[in-house]
Amino acid sequence: ICFKNVSFHYQKQDKYLEVISDLNFKIKKGERIGIVGKSGSGKSTIANLIMSIFEPNSGEILVNNKNLYSDDNKEILYEWRKLISHVPQDPYLLDKSIAENIAFGIPLDQIDLNKVKIAAKQAYISDFIETLPKKYFTKVGDNGLRVSGGQKQRIAIARAIFKNSKFILFDEATSALDNSTEENILSIIYGLNKEVTVVLLAHRLSTLRECSRIIEINGYSDFQISETQEFFKKIKK
Ligand code: ADP
Ligand code: MG
User: Fold this and answer.
1) Hey, is 75 helix, strand or coil?
2) Which uninterrupted H or E stretch holds 86?
3) Which of 50, 47, 132 is nearest to 89 (CA)?
């Protein structure tokens, strides 16, 4: 995915304030890349631009060299949306079975349970599910079934794996977790199939050590992209 001179502003009542100004970067297929910056610097805005929730006001976003917002080919945008998944800080679970939460959007009687189990295993949530009274058919919120933050994130990761996403964006996905749960989630993220491109938004820098590159935002139009090792050398000083 490639950002070319991308600018974006939220529409305010009487003035325009550019949150993202003339941003350029490229993320290669299969890359793990981190985006860091203070709260309010624009990380979630960039995430929403990548996820095509927001459209840039100027500039282009290209996927495999094709403009997402081409007037001639609207399919590109829909294809991109089918390929991507978002794992937010506090994933939303439906008040339905675990299986329906993983095979999101598929009616229960049409779900390929084997495929759900494979995704759950890869997201290291299958052991937990197997301990539940109705296993994959246990309803979230049923009989006082309490799902912790880390378990919700694993279910969201299983959902992304089930969808066969080629691009997964984690928005500060581990910041609400305790250290050992965070370590577990990080090893799942970094262990994902190398075909999958991963973007991690973070304010805790330690979570980015296995990324290949880091995009640092200091607000407005101040962006820097560095190799991870260089980034950590620089912030040590
Ligand atoms: P981060 O995720 O790095 O904390 P955001 O991308 O959420 O930053 O926000 C970047 C800037 O855009 C902030 O100044 C924020 O106040 C502003 N902003 C975010 N969302 C909106 C919105 N819906 N309307 C107006 N301004 C917004
Ligand atoms: Mg944010």
Assistant:
1) helix
2) strand 84-87
3) 47
Whole-number Cα distances in Å, 213 to 38, 176, 231: 18, 24, 8
Pairwise CA distance, residues 68 & 167, whole Å: 15
**Ligand 2 centroid vs 86 CA: distance in angstroms?**
13
Please, which pLDDT band fits residue 142 given cuts at 50, 70 and 90? low
* Alpha-carbon distances of 204 from 33, 36, 177, 179, 189, rounded to whole Å: 14, 8, 12, 11, 15
SS3 151: helix
Mutate which of 39, 44, 48, 223 for ligand 1 pocket (most atoms within 8 A of beta carbon): 44
Strand-strand pairing, 197-202 and 32-37: parallel
- Which pLDDT band holds residue 179 (cuts at 50, 70, 90)? confident
* DSSP-based three-state secondary structure for 90: coil
pTM for the whole thing?
0.89
Nearest CA to ligand 1 atom 21: 10
Please tell me the residue having the least CA distance from ligand 1 atom 27. 10
Residue 234: its H or E element: helix 228-236
Task: Give the per-residue SS3 of 196-221.
Answer: CEEEEEECCHHHHCCCCEEEEECCCC
